[in-house]
Here is the input.
Amino acid sequence: MKAGIIVLNFGEPEEPTAEHVVPFLERIFYTNASLEDQPTDEARRARSRQLAERRAPGLIAEYEEIGGSPLNQQAHAQAEALARELEARGHDVTVYSAFQYTEPLVAQVVAQAREDGIEHLIGLPCYPLCGFSTNVASLNDIQTAIDNLGWDGVKFEGITGWHRHPGYLELRADTLRRTIDEGGLDLTDGRTKLVFSAHGTPVKYLKEGSGYGSYVKEFCRELAALAGIDEYVIGYQNHANRGVEWTQPDVEAVIADIDADTVVVDPVSFMHEQSETLAE
Here is the structure.
């Protein structure tokens, strides 16, 4: 059975211009359109466009501040590294890279996999903490693309919920330990604090059954223990575009209130650098 893996990522615009940023944001807002009550699909798309145009100037400024997003390049490199590793282990697997909100879009890559004769398709979201608009939405995008193509013969499986995998935890703990050691820091001196910054999520998703809030707490607890750290604070990167309730506390409030001379911030929701890790 010919196998293929689609490595799924968020995607960010390659150029910080309205031409690229507005469609990117529009796709994100449309994916999360259920946060508001809109009577028709046309209304949901119009609202998504409105929100995208309103948010775009601020995001463009962030991209300019960080010199453009490195996410897509890093995501493609990750997929290429996975392909090399699987080949070295004797697996005959075709590895693809797809993005939810910029090209190559998931539907485009699924169509390519079908053309390539893939019989067993595996979706691998590169989000350690399973959330609605990331892991769930990206795997749903694959299934929707398969259905739209009428691709009846393919076996599809999704991999998610790997934030407690020992290998990943050790990787993150090692990075945290090295950051502290190289900075000559001491988290037990009373004046140096650790903040885990997690991407926020609308509370509505948690009430509807998403385990994201629990996953954040589990991951931070196990990461801190593995790194030998007793005290830390969790803050959330929230977006008030729709005026709905988000996870708390907000990371900006955490930083403003923290009693410390030095703060170590670890963004835990992503594997690659992007605006969420560099600008925020």
Notes: Residues 8 and 125 are 4 Å apart (CA to CA).
